[in-house]
Amino acid sequence: MTVEVQEIRRDQWRLWGGLVAAIVGWWFLYSVNRPFWEWLLFDTVGFDADTHLGAAVEFFFYDTTKIALLLGGIIFAVTVLRSFMSVERTRALLGGRREGVGNVAAAGLGVVTPFCSCSAVPGFIGFVAAGVPLGITMSFLIASPMVNEVAIVLLYGLFGWKVAAVYVTAGLALAIVAGWVIGRLRLERFVEPFVFETTLRGQPVDLTSGLTWSDRFAMGREEVVSILRKIWPYLAVGIGIGAAIHGWVPEDFFVDAAGPDNPLAVPVAVGIGVPLYSNAAGVLPLVEALHAKGLAMGTVLAFMMSVVALSVPEMVLLRRVLKPRLLGIFVGVVAVGILMVGLLFNLIL
Description:
The protein has 349 residues and is an all-alpha fold. It contains 15 helices and 2 strands.
């Protein structure tokens, strides 16, 4: 065996061994994220987990770490994958007549990825960067926090299979239709340009040219650093807002403002829900409590949808990758859909 061949094999072992070590390290950090911060903040520093301040501080550090890890992992993986296919080729494959089917597939993928609204943003960035049509990606962004297996099981246990089935149907329909509408508007020009840029060692790269695995991994690392550098202030601010209001839900005020006697109960519920930040599982106990106090099912489910699909922290994060007009259209289309679902539920349930 020649010295040159030996050197090539050593390089390959270093390359793939480094990848395996990085994957194991990423999984370890993701697994110990919450236990570590609970130990550090509650057991070591002395914050009280039962106070609003303690819960907010733990939420901030835990969620910041979680979303940074998700961003890093997803962006690296998607960058390596899209190094095999140009943006134009990907758009041709997933666009055009397949767009409606793509919306259904993206919404279905969202169901099996139980993310909160902020955690779904890394996937959104990765899909858009890979050239997946914007409308299809929006279907994923809406469905992922709104409809997931945890919410389905809990809704079934709390309210029965009919409510769970109607909720799943409405959530998927909203994600599919809203994504399709946004896709029809052809708003890709309102995505920040850096999302579509791919570089290798600081220079633009032609994805149709021959690339080694070393090149592809280098592209992935550079893309992670580049995007994290651009969005970290928005990440910190968005999660900070979520932490500040975490656990604060004005239950009594909600009952007074969106009670059964208020004809504008559904719009009020959506207006209260948007500033809050939680996942579907976290907000379901409140949904049960509000329903027990007499609020109509459509009203409390519209509130739940607005909390998990539209939140201020999510909007802050999305602002870094979407220009204001597209962000406003996204919020408007989803909000109108939630209002319609809430009113419909109040009529049939």
